[in-house]
Amino acid sequence: MTSKDPHSMRILLVIRSYHHNNTAKVADAMAKALRASIKVPEQVLPGELEQYDLVGFGSGIYDGMHHRALLDLADKLPKVKGSKAFLFSTSAMVNGDKVAKDHLALRGRLRSKGYEIVGEFACKGLNTNSFLKYVGGLNKGRPNAEDLAHAEEFARGLAPGVL
Ligand SMILES: Cc1cc2nc3c(=O)[nH]c(=O)nc-3n(C[C@H](O)[C@H](O)[C@H](O)COP(=O)(O)O)c2cc1C
After folding, report:
1. Disulfide check for 151: which of 29, 84, 104, 129 has CB 3.0–4.6 Å away?
2. Residues 153, 155, 159, 163, Cα dihedral to 10°
3. Do you find a cis peptide bond into 143, omega within 30 degrees of 0?
4. Across residues 96-108, what is the average pLDDT?
5. pLDDT tens digits for 68-95?
6. pLDDT at residue 111 greater than cutoff 90
């Protein structure tokens, strides 16, 4: 995706994962594949993202969108030119159409700041929100080993040759 020497690429993942650490597990798998750093939105100075060749933004999906902290961060970012980003999420239900909608709010904010969105990834995550806690939750054990392998594979495709 870039002509830069992949071994010198600077990659950051900005994540918020509070429900069951589901998205944090996905982020760890991606970070390993990309040799990326991980920060939470509160650790990010809006101007600092331009130092990175690629920034991934990920969280659970809450009420149909990424976590508010990521949307607020995107609102604060300065306009950029030629910067690349990718999106990821975990949620109760994952299918093409729903994921595209779940990612819409963050995607739109980042695009309006000039980011090129170079990929999007989603997988299921354990959900014990609301009445689900009484039945032990939905998507037990997710993300599982297969989900994390898919996350790694997706990440490698974004920056071939980093490992
Ligand atoms: C308050 C709340 C709202 C949620 N809303 C949605 C939703 O709109 N759509 C969905 O598919 N999953 C929804 N979920 C499920 C989470 O997206 C899912 O459990 C996710 O993996 C949590 O990620 P985390 O552990 O990284 O925070 C919701 C969970 C919570 C706690």
Report:
1. 29
2. -70
3. yes
4. 96
5. 999 999 999 999 999 999 999 999 999 8
6. yes
- Measured by CA distance, the residue closest to atom 31 of ligand 1 is 129
List the structure tokens of 64. 């149909």
Ordered by start, the domain boundaries in the chain are 6-158
Residue 31 has pLDDT above 80, yes or no: yes
Pocket of ligand 1 (CB under 6 A): 17-23, 60-64, 90-93, 125-127, 129
* Cis status, amide bond into 78, omega within 30 of 0: no
What's the CA-to-centroid distance between 92 and ligand 1, angstroms?
6
Distance 54 CA to ligand 1 centre (A): 25
Domain 6-158 has CATH 3.40.50.300: no
Per the CB < 8 A criterion, the answer to whether 143 and 125 are in contact is yes
Banded model confidence at residue 131, pLDDT cuts 50, 70, 90:
confident
Mean pLDDT value across residues 101-106: 98
User: In testing the pocket of ligand 1, which one of 23, 90, 91 has its CB within 8 Å of the most ligand atoms?
Assistant: 91
Q: For 134-146, how does the pLDDT look when each residue is reduced to its tens digit (9 = 90+)?
A: 777 899 999 999 9
